[in-house]
Amino acid sequence: MADSERRPLYVGEPNLPDWQRFEEMFRGIFERRFFANHGPLERELDGALAEYLGVSHAISVVNGTVALMLAAKALDMRGEVIVPSFTFAATAQALNWAGLTPVFCDVEPDTHNLSARLVEPLITERTAGILGVHLWGRACDPDGLERLAQERGLKLFFDAAHAIGCSHKGKRIGGFGSAEIFSFHATKILNGAEGGCITTNDDELAARLRTMRTFHDSETRVPVALRINAKISEAQAAMALLSLEHLPENIQANRMRYFRYRELLSRIDSVAFVDHAGNEASNYQYVVIKIDRAHVSCDEILRALVEKNIHARDYFSPGVHHMAPYRDVPQPDLPVTDELSASLIQLPTGPSVTDADLVRVCDSLEEIVEEAGRA
Ligand code: T4K
Question: Do residues 308 and 6 make contact, with C-beta atoms less than 8 angstroms apart?
Fold first, then answer.
């Protein structure tokens, strides 16, 4: 069989719930004829997420981007927020939607994340807050950034879109800073088709967020500047609840693929496997490699892989500071961001990716890199 005819392999292949349980959940929605506006499944999901993440409040919403917008707005900041450029565009653009200005910071070469060391020199009288991203589910210096934010009187919140089920020094991500946000997009390990949530241990902030996410009368009413329809539907909540049930086994399956990849890739000199720190638990959702000293660029590798029906990705290239609308104004040099954007690749993983598929990906990668070396 020609490579191009083989089964396509994707980064972000969805984790699916058990079909019968899904049918039962949906039958319940049909029977109740209650599809939106804070139905029983939304409430169950908020409770289940708070319990799983070990936080006082989880406020589920329609997607991760809106979760970021709401969190930024509810934290009542004005001015600038320090944020990495090496992230999904939604992280920064959510700040603009909340009337804030992102100030882009470089990331550490080993963690791919912000650190207090990098953020501190960027703080000015205009700085209102810091938005860290737990990229690939790796904790974004929570200890250092919490200390720094407290010392300098800044709001701190985290984009944990990649980090459900991850922990740092034994503490689940979800409880760091004033708030954290998660994504339940179909490509995430917790799949609500679309969806997201904001977590916090701050009762007042939670009441503001619950008021802000809806115009419906049934919800908490505290004074807020603006409200929006950010409610999660019962259909999304059903998917997310089932996915939460399956989360431990899905993490375990990801973990097996992750370590198998690490073993298979160890034979390719110009490919470095991006690992997790010893004091972190991961959900192994992203398998990230760094192309190092190869005679071929990441773009060329990605194109050659697509010809073999392997749809690896170049998250996050280019850095957000090179994209509209930010590229239209002067931006700082972010050499580590640029270097990572040009050298990282994410490999396909997901429930239907078999051991033979992993071998196929690694063999293809080796062939592409070796062929370029001979040319
Ligand atoms: N912060 C961070 C750090 C994020 O990474 C994200 C989202 C957010 C915030 C915002 O959260 P949300 O508002 O999205 O909840 C995908 C996802 O759409 C996005 O959720 C995710 N991060 C980002 C990293 O990846 P694209 O534009 O790369 O998606 P797409 O459609 O190319 O999908 C990726 C691969 O997944 C495809 O090659 C095929 C596969 N796929 C996709 C879908 C939708 C499937 O197999 N089935 C599917 O249903 O952004």
Answer: yes
Enumerate helices (H) and strands (E) in the chain, giving the number of each: 11, 15
CA 350 to ligand 1 centroid distance, Å: 13
- Which token pair is 67? 């979760």
- CA–chain centroid gap for 25, Å, is 27
Answer whether 193 contacts ligand 1 (Cβ < 6 A).
no
Q: What number does the ligand 1 atom closest to the CA of 87 have?
A: 3
Pick the closest to residue 159 from 138, 120, 133 (CA basis): 133
The pLDDT tens digits along the chain (375 residues) read 776 678 999 998 999 999 999 999 999 999 999 999 999 999 999 999 999 999 999 999 999 999 999 999 999 999 999 999 999 999 999 999 999 999 999 999 999 999 999 999 999 999 999 999 999 999 999 999 999 999 999 999 999 999 999 999 999 999 999 999 999 999 999 999 999 999 999 999 999 999 999 999 877 789 998 999 999 999 999 999 999 999 999 999 999 999 999 999 999 989 999 998 888 899 999 999 999 877 899 999 999 999 999 999 999 999 999 999 999 999 999 999 999 999 999 999 999 999 999 999 999 999 999 988 777
| Stated pTM of the model | 0.97
Tell me if 9 CB under 6 Å of ligand 1: no
